[in-house]
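Thread: Modeling a multi-component assembly for a lab meeting

Hi all, long-time lurker, first post. My supervisor asked me to bring a structural picture of a complex we are working on to next week's group meeting, and I have zero experience with this. I have the sequence lines for every component (548 residues in total). Could someone generate the structure of the whole assembly? Inputs are pasted exactly as I received them:
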Amino acid sequence: MSEYSRALHLRASDDGWTGELHDDWAIGEAMNGGLLMSLAARATARTSTAAGGHGDPLSFSAVFLSPSGPGEVRLEPTILRSGRSMTTAEVRVSQPVDGADVERFRALVTLGDLGRYADPVLKTTAAPAIPPPEECVPSSDAPPSMMMNSGFLKRWDVRMDPATIGWALGRPSGTGEMRGWIRLIDEADIDPAGLLLVLDAFPPVSFDLGSVGWVPTVEFTGYVRAVPAPGWLQLRLTTEHVAGGLLNEDAQVWDSTGALVAHSRQLASARFAS
Amino acid sequence: MSEYSRALHLRASDDGWTGELHDDWAIGEAMNGGLLMSLAARATARTSTAAGGHGDPLSFSAVFLSPSGPGEVRLEPTILRSGRSMTTAEVRVSQPVDGADVERFRALVTLGDLGRYADPVLKTTAAPAIPPPEECVPSSDAPPSMMMNSGFLKRWDVRMDPATIGWALGRPSGTGEMRGWIRLIDEADIDPAGLLLVLDAFPPVSFDLGSVGWVPTVEFTGYVRAVPAPGWLQLRLTTEHVAGGLLNEDAQVWDSTGALVAHSRQLASARFAS
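Re: Modeling a multi-component assembly
Sure thing. I ran the full set together rather than chain by chain. Output:
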């Protein structure tokens, strides 16, 4: 059983599903939001397919309500609409804290059959030409002081394009772009729900604009466009607008065949050294 | 009272707010989704401010469950989190049909104070250089047979960049881009909630790739980044990936000072002539 499968293990409960968050997947003091989103997408897919609905996440929009910690997590999907080609659902994610049930985030999810949406490709966006993984900078070279040198980072083999790594050495480019390769450290395959985790796995793009400290996600919407082929995934982060400490972070993921398999936008809050 | 203010008029009800949809704002047989989103954002902002929360929509993520028609619409916001700088809410939108309450869409909304997020602008995306409105193609030149030659279209003064208008003459460029100017026909100012309406006001970008017929929105996420200045708004639609009849449509809106004031992505379903 891969680390990833273990992290996304679900048990049926009265109201939906229960999982267990391990601080192997923490960043700083909070659990990685991407892991929670993958877990929520998986739980929603199970509830949907159990009711005869669709099983692949197509869109996933979440608002984050409170930071989650290690331990039990509860996932309660509700089907809002069962259509011929798509199922629409909502999922509530919470943790027990001192006997109370505290909501961590809520998401709206569209599910379908990704096999239906593979062809024909009428337009797509090609992966940027970057050096191969063996010529990129491994995350194991990151300075130990870096916030993201955490449990979560150790789950991944990340290779950053040397052209977009200046921020890690105290020289952010000011461009607001990060490019690189990513795969799980044990080389386990990523499934469609796991792409939500990948979309949020790089350090915040605001680091390339000089932001300091934690960059909490306000809202995240991810789209899965195809089942990823095994192997390295290529990830690019960009931003369109950074103002008053609020920015959008856009992510794109291509698989080892060069197919665009997922993209996302999140609204996040960042502090900038003045 | 402007047409826009009248369309967005809300009355307090037991569970939230009630509005009235007029087929002046219909496209084909359904109401325009953007109008519903603006109405829902406005209702959510009222519920939020009544509880001491924030009043400007920052993010708005909706899943569409059934097409809405003219008549009464019910908007029921629920506050999920009240923070110092942001309020997070959910809003349920429904219509009465034969005595039953039928849900039209559900959205997750983040609200804040846009005045806080105006400065400093550390990065932004400039509006494309297009001809001024008087040198662009007015929507009144659209062939009467066009689907969007509807009540909704008559609410707007739209001027399309001649370089991206080939699709309207049966010659889609295949690029997947539309650019142009837009303002309300009575030149009423657009408020932040109204930007959601603007983001969804152009014909579907898939028309420029040869799609035919209606292009239903599956999921829509819009972000309002600043209060728009009065005057013309510039709108650009693009797409990153079109496969198997599913596409993302990305919109950006700049105000008359050239500031990026809103952007969005939606997942939509399109049919292509083979």
